[in-house]
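Final report, section 2: Outcomes. Of the targets proposed, Mechanosensitive ion channel-domain-containing protein is the one most frequently requested by collaborating groups, and we therefore present its record in full.
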Amino acid sequence: MASDWVIPVIILLATSAGTIPVHAALYFLARIIVKRTPNQVDDDLVLYLRWPTMALFPLIGLLVTLPFQSYMSDGVIGAIRHAVIILLIAAATWVLINLVRVSSRVATRQARETREKDPLGYRRVETQVVVICRLAYTVIVLFAIAGVLMTFPAAWSYGVSILASAGVAGLIVTLAARPGLENMIASLTIALSQPITLEDEVLVDGEHGYIEEITAQFVVIRTIDERRLVYPLTRFTGSPFQNWTRTKLEKMAMVTLTLGLNTDLDKLRERLISVLQDCTDWDRRSSHLQVSGFEEEKMQVRIIASTANGTAKARLECAIREKLLPFLVSPPTISRGSSRTDVVQMSGPFEKLGWGDGTTDLASMAWPPDPIRRRPASILKNPAV
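The predicted structure is given below as tokens.
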């Protein structure tokens, strides 16, 4: 009795093992062929399909050999066939996933050739590849799970009962699947319209950072202090946010200084040019020093300089502040805004009008002077003056 099932099992195992040398020979032949072609796509195909196809060959051999096993009962053959079909679905899923990986490598390789000339375009392609590939992985796995479930007769009856009821159970399933469907639609929206791409500089809910990862369910933002903020995909398709690198990477560094009204702006400009010339983060497109406003006895000076990206912008702003600080605090090179009262020497018409000895406290002197109170008695006697 033992020989009745030992011989069929040996035959099945031998058939499966016999397909492995066939696969190895085909793989060796494919390697020789692809080495002689200049295209890199066939190399990727051979590399990524080697192990999935190695799993497929023995399973196909088993499936072909099973009908000829007359020594086995129908129940045993049916059980083995069922297991082989499930394994075939898993192997086919593996093949499809690796085909998607090959496609992503081809698209990324083509975009990488223009990375230096068009970094923003490269980031767009990279974002599309990442999002579409992950969405494709999800769809392939879901179909594989559905295929495995459909091999069980109970799953068919359960599915028919759900479709037949079309009542509370159907409503519950629909509500449960709603977040997944929303995220799937959001993934397609991000992949096609691209409101965000990888390494985009964004401002979301008052948090500033960079897009680090885009998955099928959420987006990870990396802040400057190395925190990670996780948002659902629908946050970027249904609510407003700021994308500072949507169309270009170049940024303008801006530093605001509060200085005294008697500041020598020409010397400050000379110092600024010297500072910018020593900074590698300045891309030398443009630089400006402008007076942007006044506050009582002070003025607001705005410094603007161009940079290649957001990271260089932050570094350049810090460098401008650090390198201008010694220049601003060293008198008498330049005057800063201060709360003290400046005493200045005044001569000429003020002395002739009899306003002291030429030393006047500007803080105690109203301007313009009162026409009656400020004039000397000698002038008041002459109405013509």
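Residues 38 and 314 are 44 Å apart (CA to CA).
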